[in-house]
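Hey, can you fold this?
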Amino acid sequence: MLGGSSTALPDRGTRSRTNRWRSAARLVRDLVRIHPQPFFIAVGGAAVFALCTVGSSVVLRWVIDHVIDPRLRQGHVALGTVFTGLAFVIAVGIIRASGVVVRRTWAGRAHYRIAETLSGQVIDRLVEQPVTWHQRRPSGDLAARAGVDVDAAVDVLSPLPYATSVVLLVLLSSIWLLIIDLPLGLLAVAVFPLLISINVVYQHRVDKHYTDAQSHLGDLSAAVHESFEGVQVVKAFGAESRETARLSVIAGRLRDARTSAVVLKATFDSVLDAVPALTNVGLLVAGAVRIRSGAITIGELASMIYMFTLLVFPLRLIGFALSALPHSLAGWTRVREVLDEAVEPDPAADLGVAADHHGVSFTHVSYQFEPDRPVFVDITFDVPSRSTVALVGTTGSGKTTLLRLAAGLIGADSGRIAVTPGTTAIVLQEAFLLGASLRENIAFAGQFSDDEIWSAIELCEGRDFVEDLPRGLDTEVGERGVSLSGGQRQRVALARALVRRPALLLLDDTTSALDPATEARVVANLRALLSESTVLIVTSRPSTIALADHVVFLNDSRIEATGTHNELVESNETYRSIMEAFEHDRTTVEPGPI
């Protein structure tokens, strides 16, 4: 031990409880800051209700002692006294009801406005993050953070205005009970700390179950989203039972966590009902003795029991708020994980501007997908402006990665990438379509005339199949374009890019589902009609490669050769073997209908 004295440190449980309450206080503070005005109006309405609740007990005492008791004892009471008592009851009732209306109306507004704003903040942050950030996270889990987690985070707001006014109600009612009769008042007031302690213990024990449940809910959302996205694969491989079992396990964890929370809540509700009921019995018995001794009047006892009975529900509202806290904290934690994470640099912002004679320029670019797993190292080449360049290579050589780098979807680890100023459009190998009309999929948030859309479709050799659709451009293609064939989806995705007349067009094997003749016509159309565009295309078909002005051959994470198609066939054995293998496969395997 250093020194002559020591200071005892708080135990881990105390620190944990302190941290929870601090977290709860920060949660409320941060939520209220989003839209403080409707929340505090609701709190004001709840305060009026609290004052009128105590006032109703005072009025009840006055009416019993000045109207009801004299009428029973003496047989008559002054009419003015009756009307005075009636006026008191009506006035307190109207003001109390007004407080309820204000509280509920503005608490609801605060709840939904804050939820809307918070959800928008999460969505904005998700949009701000680059593609590389999204690739590391399940999309279903991210959707849950902007939906169910936001809903959970704001759950505490609904009971909170009323719960905060309970503090005022308990304070005023305690003073009033002690003023009426000190012994009975002490008995009633002593129960308040007990009820609050029950709420605190419940909140402490249920915290873990709500946190676990919210986490399992995020896992379930991600798993369901993944399963629905891959429904065709699941069906094709007969994996329905496997997916059902997988989702059942996750759903079981969620069920167990929520069941534990419900069991605790049921126990809590039972105890919270029993304590006030037993206290009322005690007050009634002790009060009868006090009335017989002349210490209090019937009106005073009735006022005390009425006051205590009115306090039971408000005290339970504290319980509702405390029970909502763990759920809200769990949701809030997951929401803050998204909002507090720094926005990663946008790779597109790091793209330089290529010289006039270059459409795309890669200078000493290196990129690795994982540590110790380089995709390529020190790649250097230029794509001449308004030319068509084919990227050819072995599997995993980095062809798609180069396109994503040029599009600014991912950033290089080192080196410099420059592109021609203007619109850049990329068409990925897997054509993604929205569950909307063909027109909406091609326009895709842009404003284009039907003539412009049809022109783009013709470039893609798609007029025939579009005209054969039931409603033409207005045909709904289904989720992910499920109603279209693979070749049709590719041509729609290509038309989406071409309608924008991009300065740089990046094609990632986007004609792989087309027969060679259709592919050749599409590429020829691109060369003829997009003479002002630079086209960088990933392909393996010799017929398409032959239409390119230049070929960049990638092998073993590096550029092995560059030149025209014919030059590489003659000079590079690896390139020649790839072309011969493709031609052999094409002649021995008859392509299916598109």
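Oh, and this one too while you're at it.
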Amino acid sequence: MSRNIYLNMKTLKEAKEILLKDCFFKSMLKKEEIEVFDSVGRVLSEPVTAKISSPNFHAAAMDGIAVKASSTFGAYPQNPKELTINKDAFYVNTGHVMPEGTDAVIMIENVNEIGVNRVEIDAPVFPWQYVRKVGEDIVATELLFPHNHTITPYCVGALLSGGIFKVMVKEKPKVLIIPTGSELVDPKKLEQPSNLKKGQVIESNSYVIAKLVETYGGSYVRNDIMKDDAEEIKKVVKRAADSYNMILIIGGSSAGSEDYAKAVIESLGEILVHGVTIMPGKPVVMGKINNIPVFGVPGYPVSAIIAFENFIGPMICKMLGTIEPEREKVQVEPTRKISSKLGIEEFLRVKLGLVGNRIVATPLPRGAGNITTITEADGIIKIPNNVEGLKDFEPVEAELLKPLSSIKNTIVVVGSHDNTIDVLEDEIRGAIGHITVSSSNVGSMGGLMAIKRGVCHVAGSHLLDESDGSYNISYIKKHLPDIKVKVVNLVLRDQGLIIPKGNPKGIRGIEDLSRKDITFINRQVGSGTRILLDYKLKELKINPSTINGYPNEEVTHMSVAVAVLSGTANVGLGIFAAAKALNLDFIPVVTEQYDLVIPERYFETENIKALLDVINTGKFKKRVEELGGYHTNKTGQIMM
């Protein structure tokens, strides 16, 4: 099959207008009658009017005595009125039927009993005081809800009170989801993750999209994974066009030679849009077959989600006649400059946190295949297609993926990567559910610079002072001379060379890194690990330019370990815990000090106090030590 070519790509706005204009689809949703008790989340297909009034009798709204209001006129403290029980006054409780001939209630605390069946009042009441009249809430025949109204749990109470026990609702739009790709494996059919073969990919997109369909009010059927066979996919789509309201072909929408979505849709119907100027999500295909909307959904997870939320979800809402869900928006400040391509509208995933009086945004990796950039994101910044990026600290709007209250209770940690930060985050969430930790890996120097710019609460740092072997203090004094900080030790950790199991290259230490048969993977400039490496190379009089792979950088210890595991590199400098996690071998080089640098203005805040409390628990220390290569004998100590 020849490769697809994106012709006449549309902007996001143009694509939406084409897709939704005049509701081109003719697949009208059928009606069905369901019980009110099961109706939450469903959309009314016709208006609902009350069958009875609520309340359907005059009811006492207070405990007291029911009276005819006119019989109380003229009563005042100097001239109280006497009433006879069961003649012109009747004891009632809240919710009781008002006795015949009465139209007001006097609260029991304002009633003075003066004898058997005799009471005295010293103030008059007005007609219908403390009485719920017939129809005060609902009047029979009045409109309760119009058609296209989405039923909420509150609505159930109104419907039942109005005598409505069954309602007519629209059937949920039926969506067929077809995952495609010869490399895909259904997780339900994979007994153990370890059984996954090289080149195979666990198929997750269809399960994510299925739950999004439900969230927007639709129902779904998931087809079995289909191989990259255009004719077989075409047969399934052709049959489905007669019985579904929408069809989603997942994968096969880009320009690859085995991407069949466009060809299938085109052969059975009409292509409306092939390619949208957004990132992620550019390859999305939109078309119709028998006036049924059919989508070619990109195979990368984030692209699939962005395509769903911008096109497929809104289409389901259009079918149901409901309003698209809208996320809360807030002003945020990017922590650094962010470049972007002209002509492309980008959906940038960011971590957010309230630092001082501003919400700061730290970009996450942009890869469309990284599902964690959505799960870890607190918000999305949409970068317009007519700008080349965002300036640092210039306010922009972000859509929140999490509640604002969660953002305000987030501890922003920036700096050197360490596996114990993940443990710390989990322990804090377990101990204090409303506090979260957001960490960004920019290296130790990057963490100190984040403090200097006022964009974090905590910086993780392990900067070695070559002159005396101490950690962090001299760097803080040099780079943060005007900022008062506290330095708290998190861990001591073993740093060394991460090598493949069995050490096939026979590496003995740093001195072997300049060997011609060895490829090294480095950490980024400014990281404590990079500073340690350069110090050791200087000590051994090794020129970095002689090391094969010295310019190749990763930003976390785990990424270094993955590079070694995959064979991209033969060796990298990192922590023992990363080597142990991936069952790699390790050559110790040094035990270093990893500290948390905390500005004093945050040190006494509730969130930081909670963090420090957790660090000092035996449970946290035990979990850290179980990772391997960590020592907690100084954990929690204030070093400065």
